[in-house]
Amino acid sequence: MVHLILSTLFKIYIDYNQNTVFTDPGEEVYFSGTAGLSCVPPTTVNATFTVPVTALSGPTRMRVINQEGGQGSATTIVPCGSYGYGETEDYVVNIVTPSPYDPAVQNINVPTGTCFTANETVTVQVANYGSNTINLSTNPVTCTLEVNGPLGPVNYFGTLSSGTLNAYGATTQTLTFNNVNMFDGGSYCLNTTLTIGSAGGVVNGSLTNDSLFAPVCRSNFRPTAGPDYELCQFDMIPFGQGLTVSGCATPILDSQTIVLTIAPTTNPTATFTNRSCIICNGCIAHFATGFIDTELRFYCHQFIYPIGWLGQ
């Protein structure tokens, strides 16, 4: 990932044969194009490339060249050269010899937005970075999708059991997870693990690529109701008790008046639908149960509310 400050072009080179030069065929792995990239605001570019099977394994030098100010072109950016503005940086990447079978997660597609339901659809793209083709009917690949949300982690399972995953990431298959629950307000982070059937002695060659380096995260701004609040006659009510919510993008202040009707011989109730307060047993004619209307629970509100007592 290259963060750009001025209008710029850049190239990436990798010394695949480890002979200390970047001019061998195939060692220029990325060119950003001649159009130039925006400098205001800064741009982040994601470059992808495929490591050839002939690449030597182990620590390998990668060079990133950034020529700024519109000076560069496809021919003027070279592994060793001079320029007025820009930067050249060298990195070391570790090239690992592929194992025979290596199922891997390439991508997790999660719906975008800030308001989710209990029936979201998530897809996971699976490839095989091993040197041998995986026959999924013989060695099925099972994916565990972990959704870590405000109520804790929940796992969903899917299996690829037909077709093939060709070697060196040449083909992919997609698993679809339906009815993924992201209803409650809060943050959700999604990632995966993989297992492969062991028929014929097949093993998963690398576990590190069974998950994404960073989980895919989303925020649901749906308000979540806070806990109920006990109330006895003549008690003072702290600000917002019984009507708190979490998961709001921007809190809003509002007020609500609850009227409780008291009968002298029973524990009475005043019903407002779907929101209960706990009564105290044995305190007949002094306590009541109140309910807050459903709509009030799904606004991003904190409330100041007086209590009016009618009857005694």
Can you put this structure into words, describing what you see?
- Helix content is 1%, strand content 39%.
- The chain is mainly beta and 312 residues long.
- The strands form nine sheets. It has a four-stranded antiparallel sheet with strand order 3-2-5-6, with no helix packed on it.
- The relative contact order is 0.11.
- The C terminus is likely disordered.
- Count of separate DSSP helical elements: 1
What do we call the CATH topology of the largest domain? Immunoglobulin-like
Q: Say how many strands there are.
A: 23
Q: Calculate the mean pLDDT score and round it.
A: 78
Give the count of structural domains: 3
Classified in CATH, the superfamily of the largest domain is Immunoglobulins
User: How do the helices and strands follow one another from N- to C-terminus?
Assistant: EEEEEEEEEEEEEEEEEEEEEHEE
Q: What ranges have pLDDT less than 50 throughout 5 or more consecutive residues?
A: 270-312
Helix content: under 10%
> Which class do the helix and strand fractions yield?
mainly beta
Percent of residues in beta strands?
A: 35-45%
CATH class of the largest domain: Mainly Beta
The Cα radius of gyration reads: 30 Å
The CATH architecture category of the largest domain equals: Sandwich
Cross-sheet strand order for the largest sheet = 3-2-5-6
